[in-house]
Amino acid sequence: MSENNFKDSMDRRLQSVVLRPELRQSILEQCQPSAHPERARCIPWRRVVRQTVAVAAAAAVIVLSGVVGVAANPPLRRSLDKLGDDLVSLLQPVNLADEDNGIRMEVLAAMNDEDVAVVYLTLQDTEKKNRLDETVQLRDLCVRADGTILDGEELFNQAEVLWYDEETQTATIQLRSQSASKIAGKKISLLLHSFLSGEEREEMVDSGYTLEDVARANAHPALLYPSDVEQYSAWGARMEDLTELIDTQAMPVLMENGLPLTFEEYPWVSVSNAAVVDNMLHVQLHYDPETGLYNECSVVLGDKEGHRFDVSGANISLGTVVREGRSSYTTREEQIALVPGEALFKDVHIYGDLVSYAHQQSGQWQTTFRLRPANDTLSAACDIDMNPWKVSQITVSPIGVTVHGEGEMYAYSDSIELEVFLKDGSAMEVDSVTTTSDGETIQCKSIFSRPAKMEEIDHVKLNGHIIRFDN
Fold it and tell me: Higher pLDDT residue, 461 or 30?
């Protein structure tokens, strides 16, 4: 997007606006908002939340029908080679695949421990049409577990392209689920209906406007108070304030097409209205139901140099619901951002973070396999004070390490510093940590960046304490 497209589009619509003296004074009085001492974490706004994690791996033995030799499929052999000899030795590779529209989906391996399930699969463009790359996003994924249909995108809510082979046009993907109990030991069918590729990201695209410009252009916006908001999200230090306004129907939304603007280089999104209401910026975005189905535009605030402000915000889904397979989207949304405390309207600039995809491929790909547990684990009891909760047990599996505790975790509790050492003196790399608590028990799961052989584990170091395993 060129720097002036957004501004020029607005200028054409506002060039005839003339402010009355009393209206001008009213706007000027708004340019010094009340101070808000709370400062929030900067969390990007996303219409479709995609959670990805760094490369993580696990090993398993899968018993499936339709097994053929690895040598018969060079792309499969190459994918297994990249997993590493240590993992290949633990796998029973299966050439279980399904092909549609020249795209081949193949399951390489799967496994679960007590907390996490992982699945390796590949997508290959057998027609060499360049429909895959390292930015592949699986969409409309369905899972059947012993015949019960589950939401695949919710179940496997973490996915990562481990690598992309340009020569064979093959993407190797790892799916991860934090809900292993729902599918552990069951006969699993993965059904994929579409995927995206050709992702392009642009951050802090300058709209050319400040909050003062928007307040002046739409000083008295027409507002609606929806009777029911079915889908919204909120974040930041004042998230609870925003959710209360939405839940009590006290948060207004803008009338559609009150201030239409077009992102000329992004025809899949337009600004149908914008205004400053109660010291909050409201921007209503309208998405094209076809080309804008998956693309995202997130409105953010910053200073004139392009430094992002940490603000609390909310996102309300509006408009027509578009359904594709088991997924659904809304064509219109209202993004809301609290004005930074003590900031003058003239000093707060409006930017956009944009994510778009060049390719969207539909089809029907399905594979069925039995999810096998990781029987080879290590476990040790311990008693470590984490102020005030206590660690009672540590378990290591090929997927990762789990810290079990009792009590309740607080903001002032000791942070977890965990290392897993091998017998050769090296340490396992950990990609992510997930903590869950029910007020009485605590579980912290750390995922390895590569699979671990239990016979190579020497000890775990937790906050200076050495834990060794007898089994």
Answer: 461
